[in-house]
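Page 47, continued from p. 46.
Same chain as before, 226 aa.
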Amino acid sequence: MLTKRAQGRKKFGRKNFKQRYFKLTTRDLSYAKQKGKESLCTITLSDILAVERLQQESFNKNNMFQIIQPERILYIQANNCVEEKEWVDLLTKMCFSNSKRLTLYHPAAFINGTWLCCKSNNERTKGCQEVSTSVDHIQTSSVDVDRELSRIHALCVTNIDRFDNVLKACECKAVYPGDRLCLPILIEDPKTTFITLSTLREIIYTLEQEHRTVLRTIARETKYGS
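Result:
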């Protein structure tokens, strides 16, 4: 849950702050009143021009950041500074390749007909500060996909017992909520967590079987060829 400021779609609507459940996918960012409820607004990631922190003086609130869109700006308050940084960093990385990404932005809000940062009265004026990370400075590195997949596979196999423990905890909390006999693991949504981990565990077992088959084939071919 994050706190957002109304985007002002209605000319005379109140621009107050409300808590909303945010959901991020590879295509868009949306928010709803509660988890599982219909989305109130969906923002396509390709339409995001920049994601930057917002100066505290704008609304006298900490841990705020802004999602700049072509026609409006969405102001959001995170629950703490760590969460704020995570959202800003993640959204920035996901929107790096946007063709219309800004190079300048306003670090403060436009309130009562004035940008608090540069004191301009023109809401459409260009930003007064460079974005924190420019597209020209994206750090790229070559990734050995096979090696990374092998590393992830090894980590999953090594920690398969932890998967099983969490699955047992999910089952217990779903059937006996509040029971002290359940493992002391904090799980916000036992049902969804159980489904996700069960699917992941099946994939791990399948990969492990295929991995062993490949190793046996390599060993057999090596033996015959030696």
